[in-house]
Structure formats: structure tokens, C-alpha cells
Amino acid sequence: MAQRELGMERRLLWIGLLTAASVVMSGVYACATPFAALGALAALDSNRRDGLLLIAVVWLANQIVGFGFLGYPHELQAYGWGIAILTAAVIGFLAARALVTALAPVNALATVGAAFLIAFVGYQLGLYAAAFVLPSSSGAFSYAVVSYVATVNAIAFIALLALHWLASMVGLVRPNTVEARLVAAG
To answer: How far apart are the C-alpha atoms of 116 and 103, rounded to whole Å?
Structure first.
């Protein structure tokens, strides 16, 4: 029982650290929370339940910061976009998780890259679909905006992979199977 509780405590600490890191990254990158990067990392590292918990906790932290400190308007459309962001983040995570499950036995490096790519595409498609229902600016999905969000997520994904590696070195998390295969191959 104590071993199981220790595992749960470590998983919750890891989720808390990732949440804190995402809030910091969101502040650094002008509120562009790296949900695709988090979804890809969770797909590589977590079971379905923990991955969904991570996405939900990071989303909630993002909403608290936005409405509590950054002055997001308390309007129906703002709440709608909040729900759309959560839905898109879940879509990105679930798509990446399905892909990781299918590709993990094939090639570790390809799995990491593909997880990020599919999480990003799933996240963006979820937001794009929401734009048909919710108000948005005409430039919200311009090349400049999407490439900026992709860059933020790519940088965040690399930073999160490094953070995961460090966390595995100190025993906070177990190396995931993809990470272990990359180390063994290198």
C-alpha cells in the first residue's frame, strides 16, 4: 500500500511541476500555453488517466491565471473559448496517445516527433473547428499565428523532454519506454 501511495504522490508531484512549468511558459510566451507539447509529453509518458488529469489541471491553472490575474473578460464567448481550448487539448493528447501506442515498437525517435506533430495538429484542428461556432478574429489561424504557436510548442516540448529526463534521473518519474530506447540507441 505504501509503495502505491508513493507512486501516486510522485505522479501528482510531477503533474504539479508540469503545471507550474506551463504557467511560467504561458507567461513567457504571451499566454500561448503549450497544450500540444504537454499532450505529446503525456502521450509518451503517462497512462490515459494521468494524461487527461495533466491536461485538465494545466487548463484549470491557465483559466485561473487568465480570469483571475490577466483580466480575461467574464463573457460567454470567453468561457466558450476556454471550453474549446480544453477540448482541443484533449483531442491532441488522445490523438498523440493513439499514435504512440501504434508507433512505439517501431522507432523511438520517429515516435517522439510524430507524437508532437499529431498533438499539435489535433489541438489546432480542435481550435479551428471551434472558430466556426465561437467568435474569432480573421487572423487567428493565419500562417504567422499558427507558426508562432508551433514554435512555442516545439520549444516547450524540447524543454519538457529535458525536464522529464532530469526528473527520471532523480527518481521522480520512471524513464518512459521511448526515452529508454533513445538512451539505449545513443
So the answer is: 13
Record the cell numbers describing residue 62, joined without a space. 491557465
CA torsion through residues 182, 24, 126, 82, sign: positive
How far from chain centre, in Å, is Cα 51?
9
Contact 100/61 with Cβ under 8 angstroms?
no
| The pLDDT of residue 111 is above 80 | yes
Give the Cα-Cα-Cα angle 91, 92, 96 (nearest 5 degrees): 115
**Tens-digit pLDDT profile for residues 130-185:** 999 999 887 888 999 999 999 999 999 999 998 888 888 887 777 765 555 555 55
Tally of CA atoms within 13 A in the half-sphere of 158 that contains its CB: 5
Torsional class of 33: left (φ above 0), alpha (ψ -120 to 50), beta (otherwise):
beta
Phi-psi bin for 71: left (phi > 0), alpha (psi -120 to 50), beta?
A: left
Dihedrals phi, psi of 141, to nearest 5 degrees: -120, 30
DSSP per residue, 64-89: HHHHHTS----SHHHHHHHHHHHHHH
Annotate 24-50 with DSSP letters as a single string.
HHHHHTTT---HHHHHHHHHHH--HHH
Question: Given CA atoms 45, 186, 111, 144 in this order, what sign does their dihedral have?
Answer: positive
Assess contact for 114 and 103: CB atoms under 8 A: yes
